[in-house]
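Supplementary Text 2. Reproducibility record for the structural model of the 943-residue chain.

All settings were left at their defaults, and a single model was retained for analysis rather than an ensemble. We include the record here because the model underlies the residue-level annotations in Supplementary Table 4.
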Amino acid sequence: MQQDFAKTDLVYDHWARHTLDFVAPHLGRARECIRIATGFFTVEGYDLIRRYLEGKRVYTLVGYDETSRERLREKLIEDIMQHLRMWDSENRRFAVIDLVAKLQMGELHVIEQGGSEVLDARTRNKDHAKVFILDQDKILVGSGNLTVNGMRQNAEGVTCVDVPERVARWLEWFESYWNAPDTYDLTQALLEALLDWLRLHSPFDVYLKTVLALIPEDETAAPRDGYKMPAKYQQVVIERVLRQLKEWRGAMLVASTGLGKTVMATHTAYRLAQEGRIRNVVVFAPLQVHPDWDQALDSAGLSSKIITRNLLDTGIGRKGKATRQMEDVLARIDEQYLIIVDESQYFKNRLRAVDGKVRYSFQRLAEVVRERGAYIILLTATPLAKGVQDLNNQLYLLPYGAEPCYQATNGQMAIPGMVDDQIHPHSWKVPETERFFDEFINLPVCTVISTSQVAKNFAIHTPEGDYVEFGAQRRWIPEIAVHRIKAPVPLENAMSFAIRKGYFRHHLRRFRIRGEWQHSRTTIQKEAEVAWTSSPLALNEVIRKTLDGTYGARFVKSEDERARILGPIQDQLRAMTCDQDAKFLGLCRILEQHQRQGQKVVIFTERHATAVYLGESLARMLPYLRIANAVQREGDDYTLKDFDTVFDLLLDFAPQANEDKIQSGRRSRPYDVFITTDAYGAGVNLQDAAVVISYDLAWTAETLIQRAGRILRLWHYPRRVSLYVFVGDFREDPEGMRQMVGINRRLERLTQRSRQAERFSELPVFPQDDVVEYASLGDLSSVTIADLGLADITEIEEFTGVSRFLHHITALNQNLDYANQIPDDISSAMTYPGKNPQFFLLLRDQHEYHWVLYDIQQQQMVAIQEDRLLDLIQCTANTPVTVVAPDIIEGYAQQCRRLWLAADESRTTRQVERVCALYLVPEGAEGEFEPMLREQLKAAEVG
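Retained model, structure tokens:
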């Protein structure tokens, strides 16, 4: 019931808070018309006076000051709508309905008017004088805006003028400004905005709005001109990693080689530093990529230390200078440090093979991450080599945060407290099942992105090829030709017999092979198998060490027996020349072909001896080739050259890829071919080359992927790259291939593992035809190769190989222009396959987004990770709106907002904006829950 203001004593002057108490009696006595001039207008402010406006015409003039003349009509409407989505009141929807009704009936007009002498007059605090003109009898003039602050909270000065000639002058001014050329009628625009606000939007709008919230525009300015700002796809990953770090303080990023893990990690660190979360960065990385990290972090202006990762495994208390320096850095780490572990697959084994105890690296990192609270990011392109445990061991480096699980990864239950030293119940892990990959990418601390996904969702497609924009520059995604080269193995019958009969077998012994300790009876036999498919010189080296006692092993066969069988093989190998080596001649043909095309070539080999063999043999057979070799001969041994020497070779071989590391005035020596082992198979930039050759089979499939990645990078122009894999072609002894010959078992294991490893790279590492060509990496985004057996490409079937959130990004990118036009504070409803009605609300608090999922039947908030949330609300443009009373949606939106605010005392109500709301109705239960919903909301209001 409206108050009888005729009996209320009027006050003519006011200078205090609660200006509404002064204004209301005057407004209530107006008979026909109220004219309002205000600097700001909000629906919440209108709601305060709407009871006094009933049955009266209202004209509202909103001014803008000299400092904001660029404000357009859209800006004022946006200001009004922004305040509306911050307003939390039971009257919110009713106030909008009332305002819309007045606008539709022509009882309320709202226009915007430019600066003027009277309406733009200010105090020194920049407060505008504001005016209420009541009929033609009275003027209320002062500083109170038509907002909650102006009407209630601020101390405002207002006075009442009722002298007729002065009132007439104010009326004349108002009319002149109302009809001025620089005045814009906002009535229709405001009406349309409010009508759009009142309606239920499509569920697809809520879905797109939510996905869009996960990739806000990065407004961070580059710290200096030389800083590499991330591309769009990198920004998407960075935003996700930042969310993971803020929630879990740890994240694992699996990104195809060449996608810029260094750029993404550096910008993540820069953003954390800008937000005041970190002050220092420590990177554990292979020695060969130290210059990249040093340059990247220095350009970001970050305080950083780059440490060789191998030092983490040196014994506790060792006195070496580098170890002491590392220990000093570790001792200073606290919660304001970020640790970056590059090439984290180095930590795929948690236990030492030498004694079965936990590696020192895990002990050291666990202390600084779990006990001192440092942030940590794991980076890799190939986290998987042998099995699921490779993943779990790397995940173990992250801070604990998973839901407690007293179940071993093999599915067996464990008693709490009994196996914590092996696998902590709160550690992140995936079970040993066929779906382990899906389990891994669905972990909330993991992000997996492939080059093919970038090509599909972020690249611009042209007849020349696909490219990604890096600012004003284009970086082209290469086309790929994968070749399998079959080559006969030397002395097949003799070597097959020697392996099958155990002439390389020894009694159980501990060996350090490829940096890892192994207990085995066949370690030397495996070395022989690898050397056999590598080169005559490599095989000769293994046989020599087997016969002369260099290995120091106790062999199963006696010295005489070994000499009788292996001696003749060694003699034949020594007599063999490179022009008798069919495999080497095949390599020469490949090199000649690409030399004619002006393409550089990288050759990877697993054996040091083979690298020397190739360098010396190519110098004789193709003397015009300029060859750089990372390996050297030292007497009867073959060793890597020192890092500085190899680094200079890398700069000379690939000056374009490493231009930021080359000092001005440096004299370079050009090379056509770079021969190396897998010591330089990860992390280095060699993409000046267009060809990678795996001369012998790598020990693991991850190594083949890393090798290919040296050139499989975005490039300055469209091009095709060629990947060659040599395999042994056993022609003289087919029976030996069918028997339990170690080389065949090794080939089986390699191809089986490669199918799993390909799920991360999405690039077949072991081609099934002699040449397999892909016009674009986008064609590889959802393929895998069938298990062992030279499968036809038609047997390839789809798989999901990237983080689920990237598939939601795909939907967004396909509707990006539309999504950017969707307003905030929208509501919708749709059916879903769950049992209980649920409510989803997305909020924005000072540019950060937060979501609430509320189980209406259980009356409690539900914790949910972003991937599962997006899956829950995922829908299409054709998904219908479920018929639900809008006031029910409004009531639960307010309830969820209040619950979220109550969960943290630091959250303030005035800065929280509603972005979107979605009521999820169980399928087949439309309308069934409405009585319960209304009863709950009524109880909540009473409470």
